[in-house]
Every structure is written in structure tokens, then in C-alpha cells.
């Protein structure tokens, strides 16, 4: 490897590390200095009032400058970062979605018309819908069933750890693992893929699982479910343990069966946690990119919105079409976020 080829990247890495250290160090320094400054200032005011060197101020007035300073100190950086990292990119993406590929001419809503009239993009939207419907439903169901089965069981911690472990793996790492599970070799060769080896043991012939649509999309969804089921299990297990014991004891005294206990006691009691899990997994699924990019690169009718957005904007240099897909994805997420905010507000008021 030629050092001259990688030296610019190393230089950029060093610059990034230095910038990170300066920003984080500066923020930590400010978090230490500013509260100390206001504390010392208030202490001097109290000493001056006690010594009779300054008139006593009403308690409310003494706190207002400090509280106002704290509010400005903590809110201003957040507002600036939101403007730079969220508002400005959203507005710029919206503007780019109304222009052509190189951003030189206004094309109005043509990019959105292309999105809903192009057969390949309609296939992408259908695949994304399949992901959004199946992943939250299956992952939450698996996590909930597992949480109920292992609740207060022997070796509960070990059983939960095994299911939660995939959450510690990146999407790319999980995709590489499952590519080996689905790996294919000719009939005359030894199979290295677990799934094909099982098929051979059962007397069947190995198959290229990731080439056949829509089976390949379902097999990719399995990877996401494998990752997210652990998240659902942890949250729902904590919610199940938080169900009041007197309610459970009263239900048992009434002679309810295990099935009735689940549907009439457990499920209604953990409904808020269930909604949180479904919303979180749904949002994560709508942005899915890594699994499809790593395993099939969107080929064989497995493409999704996020990957197609990347391809249009960066591979094909069609910035307008890529931005239109980004705006469409953003619009799809908004109702889910609004629903979650309203749900949390109802819980707080209730």
C-alpha cells in the first residue's frame, strides 16, 4: 500500500480527531466554568447582602438572572445545532427535490411524478412497505412471546442475554453473518452456508436464496427481526415486571387461565411500552439501508427507499430524484413521530 495514497485520508482523520477533541473539550470546559461562575456570583451577592454592603433582593429576583443565564447557555447550542444539522439540510433537500439532477434548473414536481410513475421505484416503495409492515409486527411479537416465556424462569438473565446479543452487532456485521448463513455453492461442492447445508442434509438441492424475489426480501427481513427482537424483548420484559403484583394475584384468585391472564391483564398493562417498541422499530425499519446494501446491494428486486435515495443522489448523480425520495421518506416518518408525541403526552396527563 502506497503511503502517498492514504496520507490525505490520515490527515483528514487527524483533523477530525483534533476538531472532535476541541469541541468536546470546549463543551466540557463550559459545563464546568459557567455553573461555577454563576455559583460564585450568587455567593458574592449573598455575602454582600449579609455584610450590609448591598440591599437585599427579593428571592425570585435573585434567581432569575442565574436561571435565565442557564437557559441561554444550554438552549442556544442546541438551537444552533438543530438549525445546522436538521433545519438547514431539510430545507436544502426540499429545494433540491424541485430541481433537476445537477441542480441547475427548476423542474417543479417532476421528480415526485417520476417517483410514482417509474416501475422500478414503485417496486422499491412496495419493498419498503413490506419491511415496515412485517419487521415491527414480527420483531415485537417474537420479543413479547420470549419475554413472557422467560419471565421469572430459571436462568432468565442468560436466556435474555442470548436474544439481546444481536443488538450489540452493527447492521453490517449482522448482514455479513447472515450472508454466510445464506451462502451457496454448487451441488458438487461442500456447502458453507448453514441454510443450504440443512437442505442438503434433508435430501434437497442447494439454492441461491438471495436471487429469488420476493423470497430474498423476506430473508433480508429475517436479519432485521433477528436484531430488533432483542430490543423488543428487553423493553417489554421490563414492562411485564412492572405490572402490579396485586392485579396479577387478584386475577389468579378469580381463576383466570394463562391465556386470559396474557390477553386481559398483561397486554393491556404493557400497552404504552408496546407502542414505544413498535414505533421505534418502525422508524428504524423505514431508514433501513445497511442490510440491503451489504447483502444484495438492492439487486434482484430487494431495493428499499434509503438505498435508492443513496444510489440516485451519489451513484447516478441525480440529486433531484434522490432528494425527492429523501423528502418522501421524511414525510412518512412525520405521522409516526406525531403519534408518539401525542401518546407520550396522554400518558403524562393520565
From TrEMBL:
<dbReference type="InterPro" id="IPR000515">
    <property type="entry name" value="MetI-like"/>
</dbReference>
<keyword id="KW-0472">Membrane</keyword>
<dbReference type="InterPro" id="IPR035906">
    <property type="entry name" value="MetI-like_sf"/>
</dbReference>
<keyword id="KW-1133">Transmembrane helix</keyword>
<feature type="domain" description="ABC transmembrane type-1">
    <location>
        <begin position="125"/>
        <end position="342"/>
    </location>
</feature>
<keyword id="KW-1003">Cell membrane</keyword>
<feature type="transmembrane region" description="Helical">
    <location>
        <begin position="323"/>
        <end position="341"/>
    </location>
</feature>
<dbReference type="InterPro" id="IPR051393">
    <property type="entry name" value="ABC_transporter_permease"/>
</dbReference>
<protein>
    <submittedName>
        <fullName>Alpha-glucoside ABC transporter permease</fullName>
    </submittedName>
</protein>
<feature type="transmembrane region" description="Helical">
    <location>
        <begin position="68"/>
        <end position="91"/>
    </location>
</feature>
<feature type="transmembrane region" description="Helical">
    <location>
        <begin position="162"/>
        <end position="181"/>
    </location>
</feature>
<dbReference type="Pfam" id="PF00528">
    <property type="entry name" value="BPD_transp_1"/>
</dbReference>
<feature type="transmembrane region" description="Helical">
    <location>
        <begin position="270"/>
        <end position="289"/>
    </location>
</feature>
<keyword id="KW-0813">Transport</keyword>
<dbReference type="GO" id="GO:0055085">
    <property type="term" value="P:transmembrane transport"/>
</dbReference>
<keyword id="KW-0812">Transmembrane</keyword>
<comment type="similarity">
    <text>Belongs to the binding-protein-dependent transport system permease family.</text>
</comment>
<feature type="transmembrane region" description="Helical">
    <location>
        <begin position="12"/>
        <end position="34"/>
    </location>
</feature>
<dbReference type="GO" id="GO:0005886">
    <property type="term" value="C:plasma membrane"/>
</dbReference>
<feature type="transmembrane region" description="Helical">
    <location>
        <begin position="129"/>
        <end position="150"/>
    </location>
</feature>
<feature type="transmembrane region" description="Helical">
    <location>
        <begin position="218"/>
        <end position="240"/>
    </location>
</feature>
Amino acid at each position: 500500500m502506497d503511503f502517498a495514497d492514504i496520507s490525505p485520508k490520515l490527515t483528514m482523520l487527524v483533523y477530525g480527531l483534533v476538531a472532535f477533541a476541541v469541541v468536546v473539550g470546549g463543551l466540557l470546559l463550559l459545563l464546568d466554568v459557567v455553573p461555577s461562575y454563576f455559583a460564585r456570583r450568587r455567593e458574592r451577592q449573598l455575602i454582600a447582602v449579609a455584610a450590609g454592603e448591598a440591599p437585599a433582593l427579593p428571592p425570585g429576583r435573585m434567581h432569575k438572572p442565574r436561571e435565565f443565564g442557564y437557559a441561554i447557555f444550554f438552549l442556544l447550542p442546541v438551537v444552533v445545532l438543530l438549525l445546522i444539522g436538521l433545519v438547514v439540510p431539510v430545507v436544502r433537500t426540499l429545494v433540491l427535490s424541485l430541481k433537476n439532477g445537477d441542480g441547475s434548473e427548476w423542474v417543479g414536481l417532476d421528480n415526485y411524478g417520476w417517483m410514482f410513475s417509474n416501475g422500478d421505484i414503485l417496486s422499491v416503495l412496495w419493498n419498503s412497505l413490506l419491511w415496515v409492515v412485517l419487521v415491527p409486527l414480527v420483531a415485537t411479537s417474537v420479543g413479547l412471546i420470549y419475554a413472557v416465556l422467560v419471565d421469572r424462569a430459571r436462568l432468565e438473565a442468560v436466556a435474555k442475554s442470548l436474544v439481546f446479543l444481536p443488538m450489540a452487532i452493527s447492521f453490517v456485521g449482522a448482514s455479513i453473518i447472515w450472508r454466510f448463513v445464506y451462502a451457496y455453492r454448487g451441488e458438487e461442492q461442500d456447502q458453507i452456508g448453514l441454510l443450504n447445508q440443512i437442505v442438503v442434509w434433508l435430501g434437497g438441492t442447494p439454492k441461491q436464496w438471495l436471487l429469488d424475489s420476493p423470497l430474498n426480501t423476506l430473508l433480508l427481513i429475517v436479519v432485521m427481526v433477528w436484531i430488533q427482537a432483542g430490543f423488543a424483548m428487553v423493553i417489554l420484559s421490563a414492562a411485564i415486571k412492572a405490572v402490579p403484583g396485586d392485579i396479577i394475584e387478584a386475577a389468579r384468585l378469580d381463576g383466570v387461565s394463562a391465556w386470559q391472564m396474557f390477553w386481559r391483564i398483561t397486554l393491556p398493562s404493557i400497552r404504552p411500552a408496546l407502542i414505544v417498541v413498535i414505533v421505534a422499530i418502525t422508524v428504524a425499519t423505514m431508514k433501513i439501508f445497511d442490510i440491503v446494501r451489504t447483502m444484495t446491494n438492492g439487486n434482484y428486486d430487494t431495493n428499499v427507499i434509503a438505498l435508492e435515495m443513496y444510489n440516485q443522489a451519489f451513484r447516478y448523480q441525480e440529486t433531484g430524484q434522490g432528494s425527492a425520495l429523501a423528502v418522501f421518506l421524511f414525510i412518512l416518518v412525520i405521522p409516526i413521530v406525531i403519534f408518539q408525541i401525542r401518546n407520550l403526552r396522554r400518558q403524562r396527563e393520565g
